[in-house]
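Hi R.,

As promised on Friday, here is the backbone we talked about, encoded as structure tokens. Could you run it through your design pipeline when you get a chance and send me back a sequence?
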């Protein structure tokens, strides 16, 4: 996936309208940052008189990336708004594919949307409507891969040769991640893992599981507490999924995720239930972990916890099908 800046030269020598620029940036200093994406559109119209196209795209991209970090506790509202946000952010990323901050936001948004709404829907339908489940599952695979490609392109542009180095059999050649790359690498690995998990009938895809795990581990080595335990929880999921992986080591990763999050992440408990208790066929531990996830989501409201509450409730409801 390769993109170019269209019409970049045409804007390079654009005259600067200083009064408009000054009023705009003073306003931004007073408010701290734009409050919503509609304000971003208005801002783009104003700064088009004072900035080259590249700077406009970078500015808007960074603002949208900040929007992705904002807290939204209403899952219904988040789901309704996510399609618009993702399409807008993705269109800007196509203009500036090397913007690591925006690439992280787009990959994170697509991955979380796919996990919470698309892949989960396919799971729930599998027992009652296999045809619909298959169709939705294929869509989930496409979305996971789309997210992954955005993230990997950004990493490649920020460090040419990144993908080739990652695939090297020699550990000495593996890429060294910078702090700025950690978030993108985390979501690149997470979306990759999601794609692989839904492609169990495709050997060539399954063969990439060690590479996805390697990418996550490279990020974890630099910043083990990244995403408030999200990265180390991903490490646990990979370890428990790898052929020959250690459930003891995976359990340590999940416990670390619970500790790093201060016990406030429902996802860490759900991940341990599915990755450890289910694998060990320990129904009691499985149900205790899922109930703990629901308890955590009640105490600590967040969109991620709300999504995990729904998953935990469904897993409890369908436990008889698993054990």
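Update: got your reply. Pasting your designed sequence below so it's all in one thread:
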């Amino acid at each position: 996936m390769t993109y170019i800046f269209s019409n970049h030269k045409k804007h390079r020598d654009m005259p600067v309208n200083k009064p408009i620029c000054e009023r705009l940036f003073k306003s931004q200093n007073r408010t701290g940052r734009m409050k919503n994406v509609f304000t971003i559109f208005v801002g783009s119209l104003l700064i088009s008189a004072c900035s080259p196209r590249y700077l406009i795209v970078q500015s808007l991209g960074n603002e949208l990336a900040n929007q992705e970090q904002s807290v939204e506790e209403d899952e219904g509202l988040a789901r309704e708004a996510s399609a618009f946000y993702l399409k807008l952010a993705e269109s800007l990323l196509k203009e500036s594919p090397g913007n690591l901050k925006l690439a992280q936001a787009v990959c994170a948004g697509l991955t979380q949307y796919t996990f919470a709404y698309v892949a989960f829907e396919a799971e729930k339908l599998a027992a009652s409507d296999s045809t619909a489940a298959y169709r939705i599952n294929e869509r989930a695979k496409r979305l996971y891969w789309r997210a992954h490609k955005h993230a990997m392109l950004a990493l490649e542009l920020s460090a040419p040769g990144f993908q080739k180095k990652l695939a090297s059999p020699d550990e000495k050649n593996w890429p060294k991640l910078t702090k700025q790359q950690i978030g993108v690498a985390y979501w690149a690995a997470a979306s990759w893992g999601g794609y692989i998990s839904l492609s169990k009938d495709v050997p060539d895809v399954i063969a990439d599981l060690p590479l996805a795990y390697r990418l996550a581990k490279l990020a974890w080595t630099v910043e083990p507490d990244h995403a408030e335990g999200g990265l180390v929880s991903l490490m646990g999921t990979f370890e428990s999924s790898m052929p020959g992986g250690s459930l003891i080591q995976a359990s340590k990763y999940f416990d670390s995720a619970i500790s790093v999050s201060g016990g406030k992440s429902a996802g860490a408990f759900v991940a341990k239930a599915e990755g450890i208790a289910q694998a060990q066929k320990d129904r009691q531990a499985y149900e205790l972990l899922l109930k703990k996830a629901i308890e955590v989501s009640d105490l600590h409201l967040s969109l991620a916890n709300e999504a995990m509450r729904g998953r935990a409730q469904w897993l409890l409801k369908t436990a008889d099908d698993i054990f």
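One thing I noticed while checking it: The chain has a mean pLDDT of 84.

Thanks again,
M.
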